[in-house]
Write a structure and sequence with these properties.
Structural class of chain B: mainly alpha
Structural class of chain A: alpha/beta
Strand content of chain A: 15-25%
Order of helices and strands of chain A: EEEHEEHEHHHEHEHEEHH
Number of helices of chain B: 17
Shape of chain A: globular
CATH class of the largest domain in chain B: Mainly Alpha
Radius of gyration of chain A: 18 Å
Distance between the termini of chain A: 38 Å
Largest sheet of chain A: 6 strands, mixed
Number of strands of chain B: 4
Oligomer: heterodimer
CATH topology of chain A: Rossmann fold
Helix content of chain A: 25-40%
CATH architecture of the largest domain in chain B: Orthogonal Bundle
CATH class of chain A: Alpha Beta
Strand content of chain B: under 5%
CATH architecture of chain A: 3-Layer(aba) Sandwich
Helix content of chain B: over 70%
Strand order of the largest sheet of chain A: 6-7-8-3-9-10
CATH superfamily of chain A: P-loop containing nucleotide triphosphate hydrolases
Distance between the termini of chain B: 28 Å
Number of domains of chain B: 2
Order of helices and strands of chain B: HHHHHHEHHHHEHHHHHHEEH
Chain lengths: 250, 410
Amino acid sequence: MAILSLKDVRKNFGKTEIIRGVNLDIERGEKHAIIGPNGAGKSTLFHLISGLYGVTHGTIQFKEHLIQNRTPYEISRLGLARSFQVTNIFPRMNVFENVRCALFWPHGYRYSFWHLLGRQTELNERTLQVLEQIGLQDKMHFPAGELAYAQQRALELGIAIASGAEVIMLDEPVAGMSHSEAENAVQLIRGITEGKTLIMVEHDMSIVFDVADRISVLVYGEIIACDKPENIRANPQVQEAYLGEVAVNA
Amino acid sequence: MAFLKKSTIWIAYLLALLVLPQFFNSILAISIYNQMAIAIVFALSYNMLLGQGGMLSFGHAVYFGLGGFLAVHTLIMIEFETVYFSIIFIPLVGGVIGLLAAIFIGSFSTHKAGTVFAMISLGIGELIAASSLIFVSFFGGEAGVSGDRTFGPPLFGVEFLQDVEIYYLAAGWVFIATVFMYLFTQTPAGRMANAVRDNPERAEFIGYSARRVRFISFCAAGFFAGIAGGLFALNYEFITEENLNAATSGRVLLMAYIGGLGYFIGPIVGAVILTLMNSLLSNYSELWMLYLGILFLLTVMFLPRGFAGFIMMHQVAWIRGKLHTLFIPYLLTGIPALILILSCVALLEMSHIEEEVLHYLGLELNPATLLTWVITIVIASASLFAIRLTLPRLRAAWEAANAIPDSEDG
């Protein structure tokens, strides 16, 4: 059974159809990439799955729960975490606090105002482990907003994975990075999503073909192909609609 | 070690509260301490909203005032023996009322932060202030309501007849309230308030309802504002509509902002500064409110992180052992800056005074003569010139003291 299943999902903004009947099943443990030209609706699809936008029509099932039109925090609590296309962290808090905040809910602290954080040994140790995973342990006292761009992206990944979510959605995780920074980020993504389900939107095709088990091609709000990377590369429809354009631009 | 360091700060704070009346024990001094105590709790509670939770409120005096009114009514009930308990618990009565009011108002006002929240808080503040003049039986109209704290049962022989006895009671509550407000910042709810302040959207994606987080901070702030209102009722034994109107809400905003919103100690600093201005400066000049406004403007323009932020700016230089290198440059710029401020104050006072002679800093200035004005303006201009002359040296010293050595880079 798929861990995430979208059935005839549609999203309109006024009279404009942005997502036009998307059907997609993502298996547990799969690394799935969504590609497509600018304006295809990739980020909108992410927002629908993660609860930022409500769907106009259709269902989204995560594990045994129907999650369409539920709030982001309800979906997050079920075990679905995400990062954003534009860096989305807590800029005035330090790096340690950024990660620790992401651990509160999964560790059962909820809205507690009676647990003193200094005494929560397990929570603090887990925070340090995550910081070590993302390579920011030596920056843990820095205000997050003062980190370099690549470090902020790494921190955002840390916030996304800290909860131990089963499904991690990354929206253009290496956008704006240099080649070497992107290489490091890919290594990091591989490491931290090991054994988890990954859904990724990315424009860098070398990374997509390197990381993904399956690729969905979204064009004008519709999935025109969903297959293994080698089949997607050879698909003439995809070549025509997207990859050809990427090749020309490259 | 960290625990020891933190404990030392708290013990020093408690000792300072306890020994303060031993150094300055005049009636005026004790009265000022009591005002400070009330202002500290009130300003810290406001900081829970704005500094910690990112909620700009123009109506925080509502919780202070409602807590205060119920506290005075409780004093009246004690006087008529309707209820029987020690007056030391009166601030708690204020706190509970502040909390109940915050639960009700917060249930619909914390959906959004930003402009929406600010406007709702302004509306609620005006609504309650207007109501206080309509519902005379509870709020007492313009005259307010008054009680008598001395009717309460004595506590270990203390009848709270003297201001100094009220001071120690207030000091106890200030200490307890400060500890609990600090501890709140060290809990998941307190940290999530910071997270929601920084980025409410992201907070929702780590499992938290931004609205619920705001609501909890809002209720806690209402509770502690109510405690401050209860302390006010005990100290003054009366309360009026003025204590829950927009002017009081504005004053607490100034305290928190001037002190420094980003730091826990900031509102304490702001409360002390504003209480001193209110109590002392008002004795010397009718223009003290103007000076307060100018101080606020200058703080917003030059010290956006408040006085506490200004002190904390020196942390890096302190850690690197270079703080002493700033002393002479500060002195060279500070002296002309002080002269400039005093000259400007003299000009303002001369333009305002109705008497023939202004007694100012031991001098007798005659606003009727042109020469007095010319000399004052020349001194002010010369000071400004001296500041411009010495400022580059201060800037260079500052950069040298804060420069990151090569070994620390990266």
